[in-house]
Design brief:
Elements (H helix, E strand, L loop, with lengths): L1 E3 L11 E10 L2 E14 L7 E13 L2 E12 L11 E9 L7 E7 L5 E7 L2
Antiparallel strand pairs: 1-2, 2-3, 3-4, 4-5, 5-6, 6-7, 7-8
Length: 123
């Protein structure tokens, strides 16, 4: 993750986390996920979480990819999603094999640092 501190200086609305990650399965790397998350609602008072919206692509190679968008909840100022708290985002399109795709991606971050992503597409 790469943190981009927007003005005002310090943790604030508009700050961005840019990321790239290899997605693996049986046999090794299956796709590359690239995207960003923008802070849109800071934790205030007794709140312990903040909202971030973003987009990411999952590139399967050979011109086939999925595009997802949506909101995720993060612990205040954290760079990772809370452990074992599923985050669901919309699949809003695709290319190649996935042209016209729609559905959802559920992501779950685990305490060992790994993250599972379940892709569900509808006809």
């Amino acid at each position: 993750m790469h943190y981009v501190d927007q003005l005002p200086v310090g943790h604030s609305d508009g700050d961005i986390l840019a990321f790239e990650a290899n997605l693996t399965g049986d046999g090794g790397v299956k796709a590359i996920m690239d995207g960003f998350l923008m802070t849109v609602d800071l934790a205030e008072g007794t709140e312990t979480v903040e909202d971030r919206v973003g987009e990411f692509t999952i590139d399967f190679g050979s011109g086939s990819s999925l595009l997802a968008s949506g909101k995720a909840v993060f612990a205040a100022t954290a760079t990772e999603m809370p452990n074992e708290a599923p985050q669901i985002r919309s699949v809003i399109g695709g290319t190649g094999t996935y042209i016209g795709a729609r559905g959802q991606i559920t992501s779950v971050h685990h305490s060992d640092g790994t993250c599972d992503h379940m892709i569900e597409l509808v006809n």
